[in-house]
Design a protein that fits this description.
The complex is a heterodimer. Chain A is mainly β. Chain A contains no helices and twelve strands. Chain A is globular. Classes of the chains: A mainly beta, B mainly beta.
């Protein structure tokens, strides 16, 4: 079945450090891939998305490239800020699907 | 732009009570999804509706039921509440028209509401 495997946390980084959160997926057909961010006590916010192989999603300095050959969608940011502290979820939905499959979430804490 | 609206935002109930959560999708969205996110967990799919008919069912307990109304809003009814039902409940909506518009690579993008935090005491 469809699934997402996400790098386990928690992750603690110093401000301006480089961030990578790994995400790999298993899916039938042509999935679309997403990264969501959840700040404490808040709902899910779409961070970025990619709908086909080799697409790069980007937003607020975050990037992720849809790699079909490695079935991956790793999240990266060159220089994290304290305000990036949150839980990050990788997710997929297939073309014929009607539910999202979420990874287990990675908690990121950025310290000054 | 209008977003998905959920009410109430917070709800406190006692064990064995009932609760009703409401979701108002983005205008012209015809599909609604419900997810449950336990403390420190990833969101788990419960159930979805398309054009007022149940379209898919996930890990929804038998004590829960849901429906979608003619104005496309949806309600999740939870009975005989248990302590383990304490969670954040998300609603999401999407448009099937968008989903069918493309070929391979099109997607059922779901837009999430802010969630209802249910606490069962």
């Amino acid at each position: 079945g469809d699934s997402v495997t996400q790098m386990e946390g928690p992750v603690t980084l110093s401000e301006e450090a480089f961030l990578t959160i790994n995400c790999t997926y298993t899916a039938t057909g042509y999935p679309s891939l997403f990264w969501y961010v959840q700040y404490p006590g808040e709902g899910l916010q779409l961070l970025l998305k990619a709908t086909k192989a080799d697409d790069k999603g980007s937003n607020k300095g975050f990037e992720a490239t849809y790699r079909k050959e490695t079935t991956s969608f790793h999240l990266e940011k060159g220089s994290v800020q304290v305000s990036d502290s949150a839980v990050y979820f990788c997710a997929l939905v297939t073309f014929a699907g009607n539910q999202f499959y979420f990874g287990t979430g990675t908690s990121l804490t950025v310290i000054p | 732009a209008a977003g998905v609206i959920q009410s109430p935002r917070h709800l406190i109930k006692e064990k064995r009570e009932t609760a009703t959560l409401k979701c108002y999708p983005i205008p012209r969205h015809d599909t609604v999804y419900w997810y449950q996110q336990g403390p420190g967990q990833d969101p788990q799919f419960l159930i979805s509706f398309y054009e007022k008919m149940q379209s898919d069912k996930g890990s929804i307990p038998d004590r829960f039921s849901a429906q979608q109304f003619s104005d496309y809003h949806s309600e999740l009814n939870m009975s005989s509440l248990e302590l383990g039902d304490s969670a954040l409940y998300f609603c999401a909506s999407s448009s099937s028209v968008w989903a069918l518009a493309g070929g391979p690579g099109a997607y059922n993008e779901q837009f999430f509401g802010p969630g209802t935090r249910l606490t069962v005491l």
